[in-house]
Specification:
This protein is mostly helical. The chain has one domain. 71% of the residues lie in helices and 2% in strands. A hairpin with a 4-residue loop joins strand 1 and strand 2.
């Protein structure tokens, strides 16, 4: 078959953009699972809340896109911390299934409330003026906003990895999950660190929602459409692996884009086929550690 380079690069760009959302969302999931051992099924609903928060800020308070990148993750992160303190903390130390069921129920409630008030149709959120338009690269036309999403997502992912793996705060977080009694002996408030960690993971999901709003519109079920793929990304990368989630998120986005060009019929299943193959060969994931 003849290859149309312009169409191929366009699909690769779509794959990179999807990979950016996969990476941010799976990173938040990996932070929450790796630090707190909670399988957070509410992640997709919190991603949707980030997009709606940006929409409300613009249409109710007149606060535009740039402040929303900061305000929305903080607001949704605070909601997540309240959820952790009032519900999830009571499930610490027991089977993962209970946390999964609780967060799944929370996701259904959150999505149901938003769907009841706003329906299922998408609400428009405009691209900021500074990021409108595009650049002609010769081999393809690159919309500026989409290029910004990829670069900004990569910066946030690398920054989060560095915070958790290379700083003293990250060392405290890891120690608090592995030996909380010892960490308490040093005068560190472990429950507060756990709550802040959950808020960080939720904030990453909300940030992805703000970035997604101008591309995918704001819909109550936008998270439900994405979360199953994101869980597959986390499983392939290794449950709780920060670096694995980042690499796998971007890589699977690109693989999905290539599949859409060469064999569109398999584009919706290629991620799950790869997940099955990885689990057969290395059940702990590509970068996960065997327990």
């Amino acid at each position: 078959m003849s290859i149309n380079l312009q169409s191929l690069f366009a699909q690769l760009l779509v794959g990179l953009i999807n990979g950016s959302f996969y990476a941010l969302l799976s990173l938040g999931l990996a932070v929450i699972f790796g630090m707190l051992n909670i399988i957070n099924f509410a992640h997709g609903a919190l991603y949707m809340m980030g997009a709606f928060c940006a929409y409300f800020l613009l249409n109710v308070l007149g606060i535009g896109y740039w402040p929303a990148l900061i305000v929305a993750p903080i607001a949704v992160g605070i909601f997540g911390m309240i959820m952790e303190r009032t519900m999830l903390q009571w499930l610490a130390g027991i089977d993962h299934l209970y946390g999964m069921l609780l967060t799944f129920g929370m996701a259904l409630i959150i999505q149901g409330v938003f769907q009841n008030y706003f329906g299922s149709s998408g609400l428009p959120y405009s691209i900021p003026n500074e990021l409108k338009g595009g650049m002609n690269l010769g081999f393809m036309y690159l919309p500026i906003y989409r290029g910004w999403v990829v670069i900004f997502s990569l910066i946030i992912c690398i920054g989060t990895w560095y915070l958790i793996e290379r700083t003293r705060l990250g060392a405290y977080l890891r120690a608090a999950t592995e030996n909380p009694t010892l960490v308490r002996a040093f005068g560190i408030n472990v429950p507060r660190m756990i709550t802040l960690t959950y808020g960080l993971g939720v904030g990453l999901a909300a940030l992805a929602g703000v970035l997604s709003a101008p591309i995918n519109q704001v819909r109550p079920l936008m998270g439900a459409d994405l979360i199953i793929v994101v869980f597959a990304v986390v499983v392939i990368g290794g449950m709780g692996s920060i670096l694995g989630s980042i690499i796998t998120g971007f890589a699977l986005g690109i693989i999905e884009g290539l599949t859409k060009y060469f064999y569109p019929e398999a584009s919706n299943t290629v991620v799950f086929v790869l997940m099955v193959l990885v689990l057969l060969v290395k059940p702990s994931g590509l970068t996960g550690r065997a327990t």
